[in-house]
Design a protein that fits this description.
five-stranded antiparallel β-sheet, extended, three-stranded antiparallel β-sheet, about 65% helix, alpha+beta, about 900 residues, 13 strands
């Protein structure tokens, strides 16, 4: 309880009295809080301060004057008397306040709820709980005493602060206008590097701060529990002392843990300030780059003929060169320091790659000698030093993908040596002299970018470079007109028309660059020249790198594996993989070219704006990006499902010892599972929420109840066919009065190819509802039964042995169960036999039956066993007299005394 009173007089003296009691405040010592929480009497804290007279202060119970103290005035004594009276009044009223505390607690639901949430320990659990909490508190204290954590973060943030301050100083200098856009991009990448590093440090700092905060919160929770335990009635004095001891330990632990937590929170604030500074630096450099892009469509310098007579334009060359080198050197140092853990691995990989390339050359020669590979395809490995250097430089470019641009340019320039050594001759013949001079042009352009401090010198070097490049391209165009390219095409070079078209486009770009330089748009001239060199250089480097990778793939993958993959997937996966590789290579080159021509950023921003624009129709909100993402996700889902199904069905599952039909079921179910998950992902990418999908599924359920019962029945039947497998691919079945072979089992219907060649689509529900005859469910063996008749003059046992011997001698007739022949009937004029035999697995039942019948006929003929012809008895009741002589020889006509005797039976 806190009471504040003020006493004023004519001279505006005021007295503040603060009394704290009967409340377990965190500002009081632990023993006081325990005593107050248990309702025990304790001393009151009284603080007096006279407002308006800073030299007059008093505290209850003060007696006398300290040596050298000023005398206490009468007004001060009056104030003390009033404070004492107020203290006595408060002490007397505290008993009534304590008596009213339960009622107040009942009147405050929030207090009741907070008290109810704290569960006190039982008396029997106090010793064990106390020991466990004491150990936990000691662990927290031990972690709080470790100074390395906060010190490490403090040192890291101090280092970041120094480097960020230096970078901010370089970014804020006024002479950045003399730098090229490439140097500004390096500066921007430097800021982005520190943003990533600082983000990582802040994330680690946040995790440590959260851990300390959780420790503090856990200590507070345990204190509340032990305070509630100390209020338990009838608690033994020893247990109560143990509770007080734990509360004191928690207080001490909080004090020790609060200091490192405060340091971490302070470091978090410093990290936030550094992050704000980094964001401002990125925004500043991005604004300068945007300003450079805007200058592409404006005249930023005087025309060349005016600049020649302007002496003010002649600035020292060292300005731009020193600033550029300073930016690149600082960025390279910071980038390597941030990625220092990768440098040993990269160096070790580069050293181990050289002997591997020598071994690959030996293996490539063996493959060429064995006829398993062609020499042109292995040409990249015939020069291991060039291939090794190119792969190492490609790794350096990947390492510096977000690093200094000047170092990337140096690596690409060095890569020209292995590129010329590895590119096939037909490509060099098609490109012409440009393939040899482009490295020289690339070096001159990179060197010229350091001369921006002297605009006149830079413009002269750039114009000279443009003219040399035009002469080189004109030479190539002249050779193309004279037919040299056509002759090269006959020798197997690259197509001439696309290269000729690209050559003319390059000539136009160079003419525009030279014209812009002369007229005064130096930014456009710089961009066009550098972009043309970068894009052409990158195209040849990508081509050379792809030849090395293809050769490595052919050498490392066994020839048998390639032959098997080519044989099985020659019409699907291999063309798709080749198409995908070419597409990725062209797409990478296109993105690089667009970035070089300064088109990628505005184009990507425009596409993002278009794709994110939302069209609202009532509550429905759709964007072009969502539609494109949905279409792409659906296409990828179906393509991935088909590819995985093909690989499972033809490569992976056949190699496993699975029962027949299990592999087909696994591949089919995998296909539909991937399609289902892909459709869900596509719907999520389109912006559908889970609640909206529930509405869609609910509407689908209503549709199923109204008119889609057959579809659902066939779908469920398809699932049953997949798991139960009463039919499998390739089975011969009789269903719906039709015989055929199962070609495909889908989720809704099964396709059966009849023996007449018709494709019959049978709903899956019909296969389960109607009678289905599967001739090959548990095996492909079928029984053949042929009926034969012989005369009574032949021994039946002889006939049986002959028939069994004929059946045993036919390839494709199984010996187990053994063929058999039985006498099935004694008919008038003939003995009837039946030959029964089983075909071997995978034998053609129809061909075996035909061959058995032919063999039986030939065997009976060779044995002299006659197959009797069918005999019938005919009784003639009456015959006209006119036809009797013709029918019965020797009979007399009716007019010649015929007696009408009976005709013999025939």
């Amino acid at each position: 309880m806190t009471v504040v009173a003020a006493i004023k007089d004519n001279q505006s003296y005021a007295l503040e009295i603060s009394i704290t009691a009967l409340a377990p405040s965190n500002e009081l010592p632990g023993a006081w809080r325990s005593a107050i929480a248990r309702g025990r009497p304790c001393s009151l804290a009284l603080a007096l301060q006279v407002v308006g007279r800073p030299d007059v202060t008093a505290q209850s119970g003060a007696q006398g004057h300290a040596p050298g103290a000023r005398p206490v005035s009468a007004r001060t004594r009056l104030c003390r008397v009033a404070a004492g009276a107020l203290l006595i009044w408060v002490t007397a009223g505290s008993v009534a306040v304590r008596a009213q505390t339960p009622a107040a607690a009942d009147a405050n639901p929030a207090s009741v709820e907070a008290t109810a949430q704290v569960t006190a320990h039982g008396s029997a659990d106090i010793p064990a709980r106390a020991d466990a909490d004491q150990q936990y508190i000691q662990d927290i204290v031990r972690r709080a005493r470790v100074p390395d954590l906060a010190q490490r973060y403090e040192e890291a943030l101090a280092s970041h602060s120094t480097t960020i301050g230096q970078l901010a100083e370089r970014s804020g200098q006024s002479d950045l206008g003399v730098l090229s856009v490439r140097r500004l991009e390096s500066l921007q990448r430097h800021w982005l590097l520190y943003e990533r590093v600082l983000t990582q440090t802040r994330a680690e700092l946040a995790r440590s701060t959260n851990a300390k905060s959780e420790d503090m919160a856990d200590l507070a929770k345990r204190r509340a529990v032990w305070q509630a335990t100390g209020q338990t009635a009838g608690l033994a004095p020893a247990l109560l002392e143990r509770v007080d001891e734990l509360i004191a330990m928690i207080d001490e632990a909080e004090k020790q843990a609060a200091l490192p937590l405060g340091k971490l929170l302070d470091l978090g604030r410093k990290g936030s300030a550094l992050a704000t500074q980094v964001q401002q630096g990125i925004a500043s450099v991005s604004a300068k780059i945007d300003d450079q892009d805007r200058r592409l469509v404006s005249m930023d310098t005087p025309p060349l003929w005016q600049a020649l007579g302007d002496s003010k334009a002649l600035d020292p060359v060292s300005i731009g060169m020193s600033r550029s080198l300073e930016i690149e050197r600082a960025f390279a140092s910071g980038y390597d320091a941030a990625n220092v853990r990768w440098l040993p691995a990269l160096a070790a990989g580069a050293l181990l790659l050289l002997p591997a390339m020598v071994w690959l050359r030996y293996r490539a020669r063996m493959l060429v000698a064995a006829g398993q590979a062609t020499e042109p395809s292995m040409r990249a490995l015939s020069r291991p030093w060039a291939a090794w250097l190119l792969l190492v430089l490609i790794g350096a470019v990947v390492y510096d993908i977000q690093g200094p641009i000047f170092r990337q340019q140096a690596v690409m320039l060095l890569a020209w040596i292995p590129v010329l050594a590895l590119v096939q001759r037909r490509v060099l013949a098609s490109v012409g002299p440009w393939a040899y001079f482009s490295a020289f042009f690339y070096f001159l352009n990179a060197l010229a970018s350091l001369l921006l401090g002297d605009q006149l010198l830079y413009r002269g070097v750039l114009l000279t470079l443009n003219l040399l490049m035009l002469l080189t391209l004109a030479w190539r165009m002249l050779r193309a007109r004279r037919g040299a390219s056509d002759e090269a095409d006959e020798a197997g070079t690259m197509p001439a028309r696309p290269l000729t078209f690209l050559g003319w486009v390059a000539c136009v770009v160079l003419l525009v660059s030279a014209g812009s330089n002369i007229l005064g748009n130096i930014s456009l001239a710089t961009m066009l020249t550098g972009a043309l060199l970068d894009s052409s250089y990158a195209a040849l480097a990508l081509y050379a790198g792809s030849t090395v990778l293809v050769a490595l793939f052919q050498v490392l993958v066994p020839r048998s594996t390639l032959a098997r993959i080519a044989g099985r997937h020659s019409g699907s996966l291999i063309p798709l993989a080749a198409r995908l590789g070419r597409t990725l290579m062209v797409l990478g080159w296109l993105i690089y070219a667009l970035q070089s021509f300064r088109v990628y950023r505005p184009l990507s921003a425009f596409l993002i704006t278009v794709l994110t624009h939302e069209f609202k129709l009532g509550l429905l909100s759709v964007s072009l990006g969502n539609i494109a993402a949905f279409a792409a996700a659906v296409w990828v889902a179906f393509w991935l499902a088909r590819t995985i199904r093909l690989l499972l069905a033809e490569d992976l599952l056949p190699a496993l010892s699975l029962p027949r039909g299990v592999g087909d079921s696994i591949s089919t179910l995998t296909y539909y599972s991937i399609v289902f998950l892909g459709l869900l992902a596509a719907l999520a990418m389109a912006g559908f929420q889970v609640g909206q999908l529930a509405i869609v599924f609910g509407a689908l359920g209503v549709g199923i109840g109204l008119g889609l019962q057959d579809v659902v029945k066939n779908f469920v039947a398809g699932l049953i066919l997949m798991f139960e497998r009463p039919i499998r691919l390739g089975d011969v079945v009789d269903v719906a009065g039709m015989s055929g072979k199962v070609r495909d089992i889908g989720m809704r219907a099964t396709i059966i190819t009849s023996f007449d060649g018709a494709e019959v689509v049978v709903p899956n529900g019909m296969l389960l509802a109607d009678k289905l005859v599967n001739w090959t469910l548990h095996g492909s063996s079928r029984r053949i039964s042929i009926d034969i008749s012989t005369g009574y003059g032949v021994s039946p046992q002889q006939t049986i042995e002959l028939l069994v011997g004929i059946a045993r001698g036919i390839d494709g007739i199984a010996l187990s169960p053994a063929p058999e022949a039985i006498l099935t009937g004694l008919t008038p004029g003939a003995l009837e036999f039946s030959v029964r035999a089983w075909t071997t697995p995978h034998a053609n039942w129809i061909e075996m039956r035909s061959e058995l019948a032919v063999r039986i006929r030939d065997g009976l003929a060779e044995a002299g066993i006659e197959v009797p012809l069918p005999q019938r008895e005919m009784h003639v009741r009456s015959v006209p007299a006119a036809v009797v002589p013709a029918v019965v020889p020797g009979s007399v006509a009716p007019g010649q005394g015929s007696t009408g005797a009976d005709l013999p039976n025939t």
